[in-house]
Fold these 2 entries.
Entry 1:
Amino acid sequence: MTDTLRLAVLEGDGIGPEVVPVAVDVATRALAAQGLTVETTALPFGAAAVESDGAPVPASTLDALEKFDLWVVGPHDSASYPAEVRYPPPGAVLRKQFGLYANLRPARAVSGVTATAPDIDVLVVRENSEGLYADRNMTIGSGEFMPTPDVALAVGVVTRAASERIAVEAFEAARRRRGHVTVVHKANVLRLTTGLFRDECLAVAERYPDVRVDEQHVDAMAALLVRRPADFDVIVTENLFGDILSDLAAELSGSLGLAPSINASDTRAMAQAVHGAAPDIAGRGIADPVAMIGSGAMLLRWHAARSGDSRVSAAADAIDGAVAHVLGEGIATADLGGGASTSEFGAAVAAQVG
Ligand code: ATP
Ligand code: MG
C-alpha cells in the first residue's frame, strides 16, 4: 500500500479555478491527517488550454492522464472558446477516451441547508456512455444528424454489455448502502432500447438476491422522487434519464451547488461536480465549493474500495463530516444564503479535517 496518492488536477473554466484548488487542499489535509501525502500534477484543460495549446483537451493532457488513476476535474464552458473552431465538449472527450462508463451522483440533504426533501438519500447511477447523448456515444460516434434542413434525427444506442456493467455498479453500491435498487426506464414506449436496459438490469438482479429490486418508468420516477423520496436508495438508469433525475435529486436535497459526482471506469475515476462553470458568478470568489469538495471525497472512497486502504476511506469520511459540520454551524456561501467566500468556506472545512 502506497503512502503517496498521485492526483491529476484539471481546473477547467469559470468557477473551476476557484473551487478545484479548495477541493484539492481539503483532500490533501484529510489524507495528511491519516499519514498520507498527495502529489498533484496540474494539466492544461479548458479555455486556458485553448490559449496555451490550441485545444481544450490537448494531446499532451490526454497522454499524461494515462498515467493517473485519480483525477480532479473542474467544469468547462465550451461557449467561451473561440467561435471559429468547434470542439467537442471537453468532459465528454475525457469520458469517451477513457471509457468512464459510470456516473455516480448521490443526493442527500444536510442539516443547516433548507431542503425541499429533507429525507432524501439516493444515489443515481447513470450509464455514461450510451443512450441518446450523441457526443458521449462510444459505439457509433455522432448520434445526431439532419437528413434535410427541416428534419433532425438522433440515434440512441443501448447495448447489453454496457447495461450489464452499469447494473453491476448499481447493485454493488446498494450492498454498501440500504440494499435497494430501482431500475428506471421507459420500456412501455422505448421498448427495444430502454427495454433491453431494463431486462439486463433485472438479469443482473438475480445475482444479488440480498438486494431488493423494483422498477419505474422515468416519468413516474420523477413524480415519486418528489412525493416519496425516502422510498428510494439506488436508482440505476440510462444516460439522459440519469442526467435529468440527478439534477432533480440534487435540487430536492438543497442545491445544485452541493451535488458531488464521479465518473469512473474499472481502473480510473474522475471527480467532477454536477454543476457547470457558472460563468455568471466566476471570478468573484463566491462560488460554493461543497460539490467539488464532496466529489473529492467520493474519489477517495472509490480509491479506498479498490486499494483496501482504510486510511483513504477515513479521509473521505472526515471530509464529508467536516462539510456537514461547517454547514451545520451556519457557515455557507451566497447560493445558500450565507456570507462566506469560497476561500473562507474552504478554510473552515480544511480546519476541521486537518
Ligand atoms: P452546464 O451546461 O455546464 O451543466 P449549466 O448551464 O447547467 O452548465 P451551471 O454552470 O451549473 O449551469 O450554473 C447554473 C446556475 O447555478 C448558475 O446560476 C450558477 O451561478 C449556479 N451555480 C452552479 N454551480 C454553482 C456553485 N458551485 N456555487 C454557486 N452557484 C452555482
Ligand atoms: Mg447543467
Entry 2:
Amino acid sequence: MKTVLVTGGAGFIGSNLVRHLIRAGYRVVNLDKLTYAGNLASLKDLEQDENHIFVQGDVCDGMLVLELLHRYDCDAVINLAAESHVDRSIGSPGMFVRTNVVGTFEMLEAAREYWHALSEERSQGFRFVHVSTDEVFGSLGDSGSFTESTPFQPNSPYSASKAASDHLVRSYHETFALPTITTHCSNNYGPYQFPEKLIPLMTLHAVEGKQLPVYGTGLNVRDWLHVEDHCSALRLILESGRIGDTYNIGGDAERSNLEVVHAICQTVDELCPSDQPSSKNIQYVRDRPGHDFRYSIDASKLSSELGWKPSVSFEQGIKDTVSWYLSNPDWVTSTREKGYHGQRLGTSANS
Ligand code: NAD
C-alpha cells in the first residue's frame, strides 16, 4: 500500500481527493491547518478509517512536514493547501502570499530533504504533485483556450500567488531534479464546497429565497469540472504523469455565470417548487475588480497522453450537486459557522 501526504485535505477538493485515494487503496496522511475553509465534517465518514491519518498543522511549518514524511514513510505528496477565494485575496492578500507561496516553498524544501534521504529505488518512485489553477493564465477574449504552454498572466492576488508557487515547483525540478508535476485545473464544483463559492452560494440562497448576487453583466465565462473528475485526473497524473511536466485539466463545459445560476435555479425549482421562480431574485452587483472575462482550458494533452476524460456532464453534475446541498443541512450549518462571508464584493447577498 502506498502512502500519500495530502495537504489541504479538509477543504473542498482535498476532502473529495482523500476519499477518492482511500477508495483506490492508498493510505493518506492529511495535513490541514483547518482555516475557515477546512472542515472535519467533510471527512466524517473517514473518522474510523485506519488509512486516513489527520494532522492539524500548517504547510509553512517545514519541520512538521519533514517529520510527517519520515514518520509515515510517504511515497508521494499532493499539495492542495491554499487560500483559494479570489474575493478574499482582494481584501487580504498577505495570507495568500504566506500560505500559497511560502507554504509551497516549505513543502518543496521538506520534500527535497526527504527525497534525498530515500533509497535509490524509493526515490525513483517519489512524486510531488502540485495542484494549481487555470487562473494563472489570465483572461481570454471570446475565442481560444489555455494550453500548457500559455504564458502566465495572473490578474488577482490569488492567481498571482498560485503562479508564484508554480514557478517555485518548476524551479525545484529544473534545479534539484525533484520529481514534480504541476496541474492547472478549471473551476470545480460538487459536494463539500465552502458555501461562499458561486455554486453552493447560489444554491443555498435560491432555496432560502435570498438575493442571487451576480457580478457585472453575468457574462463572464468559466469552464466547469465535477470534483470527482478532478480527483480521477489527479490520481492518474500521480500514477502515470510525466515527471517535470504540467497538465491542464478541464471539463469541456464552458458556461457564463448567468447560465450557471439559471441551471441552479431550474434544479432548485424542480426540487422545491414554489409560486415564483427562484431566478426572480437574481441581482446584478458591482463587478469584482480585475475580474477575468473568460477561462477556457485545452485538456487534450491529458486525454491523449494518459487517456483521461471527464465522466460527469455539467447538467447531471449540477443536479446532483444542488441535491447534495439540500440533503446535507447539518454540513451546511457547520461550515457556515466557520466564518462564512455570505456576500460578494459588490453587495451584501442578504440585502
Ligand atoms: P479550499 O479553500 O476549499 O480548501 C483549502 C484547504 O487548505 C482548507 O482545508 C484549509 O484549511 C487548508 N489550508 C489553508 N491554509 C493552510 C495552511 N497554511 N496549512 C495547511 N492547510 C491550509 O480550496 P479548494 O477549492 O479545495 O482548492 C484546493 C486547491 O486546488 C487549491 O490549491 C486551489 O488553488 C486549487 N484549485 C481549486 C479549484 C477550484 O475550483 N476550487 C480549481 C483549480 C485549482
